[in-house]
């Protein structure tokens, strides 16, 4: 029986390796993490992350061929293939601060593998890393390993999107496996391809050299984020001219060279990856003495910041140039629908802005815990601000009671079908709704009596 160990039981390691276990009953998968609370949650009825369909996958194989544990060394020793799926956040200090990826977790996991392995392993980079990280991993492994043990390194970047992780993993657009183009490297590549071949059609399993594979992940995220910043830049022009960004996106998307996906304007992208990976690409470009290339990609992130600040300013302007002591209800705190993840969520930036303008804020999100909202906000603002100005409410109607304005920041489906007559009746007048996700029926809302403001539209 093939044994797989995954180091890092996060948003990627958890779902990815749970799906491998689900699709490969003949493979034993152990997902390990240093975080005891996270592992306890994976072993409980209340999984640490919310993803539609994930409970079914985990509950079907947990205890059979899927295990969650903090015994990192034991899992490394037993495994044939080891996924390294630890976090690679943007560095906060030192060289490259604010841009470069912090590879401390990748390095520490790699050193652990070298120290404890008693047999040869295939080590798979699952984390998103800068180009040529595999080379550093190989050097560390070879310098620290015991005699006679061989390590082959593969790059196997993950393309799942949070909120659709399970369907993305079940039916991936492609699986990318990069390796050194040596006979051993190609053999390792084939071993991993054989695991995926249990459910992924062969033509979707793409093999290439290590550096292309590493760079492809950064490139894919940069291109996706660039599309969002492009449509958001157009949304500003729409607001200034009377064009409608949904109509513009529809017209452009019908061109088969452009395509309709990922052309939805919004308050700005969030999530743990887009910004981090683009900044990583910017840093890489600068390190390669390509300042024009760096500046080009940096603009994608700058446009995203501009969109958030533009929307915040529009809100204040429409609320008669002041929101001090006004009641603002925030619908949605997750960075997008169908996830409880708030990393880099636009809501954090906007709530912080409202706090500075001394508004009273009530926040409703169907999937984000109170503690998470508190942690995100108090990271930027003093704890007292949270106590005095912010309420986290578990019912959207309650959250909107007495509000001057509702601001929609996450595109949860349930926001489309709320009883807005009831909500309107309980709000201060004039009652405003700011739709930062273009999901509401503005005509219907205006008929009820709301003042409606939508990104990329003037009517
Ligand atoms: P995460 O922060 O949710 O999970 C990482 C886990 O690794 C944490 O639970 C942490 O405790 C654990 N960890 C760190 N060092 C460890 C060590 N030495 N030994 C054992 N456990 C250790 O991060 P997430 O979101 O799962 O991301 C992981 C990687 O995948 C990142 O490089 C990210 O860029 C990439 N990625 C993330 C996607 C996403 O949607 N979240 C999508 C595609 C790639």
TrEMBL record:
- Which biological process terms from the Gene Ontology are attached to this UniProt entry? glycosaminoglycan biosynthetic process
* Pathway this chain belongs to: Nucleotide-sugar biosynthesis; UDP-alpha-D-glucuronate biosynthesis; UDP-alpha-D-glucuronate from UDP-alpha-D-glucose: step 1/1
The UniProt entry, under Pfam families, shows: UDPG_MGDP_dh, UDPG_MGDP_dh_C, UDPG_MGDP_dh_N
Q: Where is the active site?
A: 273 (nucleophile)
Q: Does the record's keyword annotation contain Oxidoreductase?
A: yes
Q: Which SMART domains match?
A: UDPG_MGDP_dh_C
Q: What is this protein called?
A: UDP-glucose 6-dehydrogenase
Native species: Rhizophlyctis rosea
């Amino acid at each position: 029986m093939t044994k797989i160990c995954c180091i890092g039981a996060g948003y990627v390691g958890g779902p990815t390796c749970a799906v491998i276990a689900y699709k490969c009953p003949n493979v034993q998968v152990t997902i390990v993490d240093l975080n005891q609370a996270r592992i306890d949650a994976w072993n409980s009825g209340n999984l640490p992350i919310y993803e539609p369909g994930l409970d079914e996958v985990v509950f079907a194989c947990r205890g059979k061929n899927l295990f969650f544990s903090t015994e990192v060394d034991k899992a490394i020793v037993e495994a044939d293939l080891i996924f390294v799926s630890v976090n690679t956040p943007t560095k906060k200090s030192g060289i490259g601060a604010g841009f470069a990826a912090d590879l401390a977790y990748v390095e520490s996991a790699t050193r652990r593998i070298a120290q404890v392995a008693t047999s040869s392993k295939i080590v798979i980079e699952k984390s998103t890393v800068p180009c040529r990280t595999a080379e550093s991993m190989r050097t560390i492994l070879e310098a620290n390993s015991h005699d006679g043990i061989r390590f082959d390194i593969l790059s196997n970047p993950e393309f799942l999107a949070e909120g659709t992780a399970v369907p993305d993993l079940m039916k991936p657009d492609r699986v990318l496996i990069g390796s050194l183009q040596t006979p051993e490297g190609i053999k390792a590549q084939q071993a991993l391809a054989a695991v995926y071949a249990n459910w992924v059609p062969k033509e979707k399993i793409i093999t290439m050299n290590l550096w292309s594979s590493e760079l492809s992940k950064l490139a894919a995220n940069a291109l996706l984020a660039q599309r969002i910043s492009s449509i958001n830049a157009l949304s500003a022009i729409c607001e200034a001219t009377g064009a409608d960004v949904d109509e513009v996106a529809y017209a452009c998307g019908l061109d088969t060279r452009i395509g309709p996906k990922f052309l939805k304007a919004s308050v700005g992208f969030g999530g743990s990856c887009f910004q981090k990976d683009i900044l990583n690409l910017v840093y890489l470009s600068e390190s390669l003495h390509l300042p024009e290339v760096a500046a080009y990609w940096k603009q994608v992130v700058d446009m995203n910041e501009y969109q958030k600040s533009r929307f915040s300013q529009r809100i204040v302007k429409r609320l008669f140039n002041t929101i001090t002591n006004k009641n603002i209800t925030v619908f949605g705190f997750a960075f997008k629908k169908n996830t409880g993840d708030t990393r880099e969520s636009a809501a954090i930036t906007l709530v912080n802005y409202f706090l500075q303008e001394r508004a009273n804020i009530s926040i409703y999100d169907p999937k984000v815990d109170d503690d998470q909202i508190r942690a995100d906000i108090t990271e930027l603002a003093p704890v007292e601000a949270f106590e005095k100005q912010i309420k986290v409410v578990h019912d959207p109607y309650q959250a909107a009671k007495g509000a001057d304005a509702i601001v929609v920041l996450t595109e949860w489906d349930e926001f489309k079908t709320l009883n807005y007559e009831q909500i309107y009746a309980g709000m201060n007048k004039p009652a405003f709704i700011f739709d930062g996700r273009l999901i509401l029926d503005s005509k219907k809302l205006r008929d009820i009596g709301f003042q409606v403001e939508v990104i990329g539209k003037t009517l």
